[in-house]
Amino acid sequence: MVTDGGSEYKGKTFEQIAELGVSLIHLPPYRPELKGQVEKLFDLIQKSYKDMLKGKGVIMPDFQERGSHDYRKDAVLTLEEFERIVVRCIIHYNCERVIKTYPYTSEMLESNVKPYANEIWNWKVENDIGTNLISVSSKDLVLTLLPRTNGKFTKYGLKVNRLRYHAEGYKERYLQGGDVIVAYNPDNCNKVWLKEKDGSFVEFSLIESRFEDMSLDSVQDIQQKQKELMKDTIRDNYQSKIELMSFIESVASKPKSTNVQIKDTRAARKSATLKQHKDIGDVIDE
User: Fold this and answer.
1) Which of 96, 135, 195, 236 gets the highest tally of CB atoms within 10 A of its CB?
2) What's the domain range around 129?
3) How many domains does the chain contain in total?
4) Could you give the CA distance from residue 157 to residue 127 in angstroms, rounded to a whole number?
5) CA separation for the pair 6, 38 (Å, rounded)
6) CB 194, CB 158: distance < 8 Å
7) Could you say which DSSP state residue 73 is in?
8) Which pLDDT band holds residue 276 (cuts at 50, 70, 90)?
9) Structure pTM?
10) 10 shares a domain with 120
């Protein structure tokens, strides 16, 4: 896979695709001659819509010249509408544009392969001719490209992004502990996937049901608010402990009595209890 070195192709997550056997080649910036086929594709796609969108905001070649028209003021399309047009042009380029000079083989002519890019491609895939494809399932592709983070085995399960997960057959690993690499879906925290040393992925399910179907951002927002609440509460708790100690000290600070009776303490305690007791019946009568 040849890229122009853009940031979206240099991220760690995208480069994980190399694990499937794909070779990544990053071309240096500002070298269009190294990727002529791609640049020509851009040229053909733009020609597909520029004439039709003239006067509707599309930028023309003279936009950098002194005194040229400000084409932005002519814009009538939303980003979504423009995207639909570009996608439709790409579909036309691949499925409806006639390739007049393609070097047909006798086998292709016998199979009545139409001179469209997608028809030629599909025929080559079916006949395993020069496509150099890598066999991989959609699930494996998605799991490979998911963002990853460090997880930790604890006695409470697999801990990832401050959440706990569980899978059958891993109780011993929980007790052993240790750090692992885990793939996760930032849009849904229900599951994570442990990446084993052999390259396989093992699915783990969320233990804490209160976070089901929530995005990682939502979960972290709740966790942060809870952390702030606890921080404020602990600060208030310190103050209450100080007040409790002051109260106990004030009650216990009276002079010690010199006439302390240590005999019949049980009877004295019972007598004091009955003195303070208020019968339930009396409360009802009141």
Assistant:
1) 195
2) 2-135
3) 2
4) 48
5) 14
6) yes
7) G
8) low
9) 0.63
10) yes
What does the alpha-carbon distance between residue 184 and residue 190 come to, in Å, rounded to a whole number? 9
Whether 110 and 148 share a structural domain: no
Whether residue 110 sits in one domain with residue 12: yes
pLDDT tens digits for 116-157? 999 999 999 999 887 778 888 999 999 999 999 999 999 999
User: Under a CB-based contact definition with an 8 Å cutoff, are residues 113 and 98 in contact?
Assistant: no
Q: Radius of gyration over alpha carbons of the chain, in Å? A: 37
Return the closest-CA partner of residue 119 out of 190, 111, 54: 111
At residue 284, does pLDDT exceed 60? Answer: no
> Do the bridges between strand 157-160 and strand 163-166 make them parallel or antiparallel, or are there none, so unpaired?
antiparallel
pLDDT tens digits, one per residue of 18-42: 898 888 888 887 888 888 888 888 8
| 123, amino acid identity | W
Name the residue with tokens 């404020």: 232
| Residue owning tokens 């085995």 | 153
Structure tokens at 96: 């409806």
Copy the structure tokens of residue 269: 């305690």
